[in-house]
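Everyone, study these two lines:
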Amino acid sequence: HVQLVESGGGLVQPGGSLRLSCAASGFLYGSVCMAWFRQAPGKEREGVAAIDSDETESYADSVKGRFTISKDNAENTLYLRMNSLKPEDAGMYFCAAESAGYWGRGTQVTVS
């Protein structure tokens, strides 16, 4: 069955870095657009970054130049490298194959 399992979240000071991972299984991972979303308490979920099957990347304006999305098709793993973290980057981060309706359960990022 389909699984998306995020990891790598945690507590980091402002200006610090984290790398999130998302292990995917049960679907043709390399053939769909994969993305990272986040949701802070009291706020709507927002898209952070996406990478298409042709490796085209896209980013929310708020994270451009600080975050990098990548994927390892051989390992069916999606990554999000987050540098220069700000308090407003805090929230639950989810990976998703949104068009297919597949979502992980999230990993918490706290910047404080």
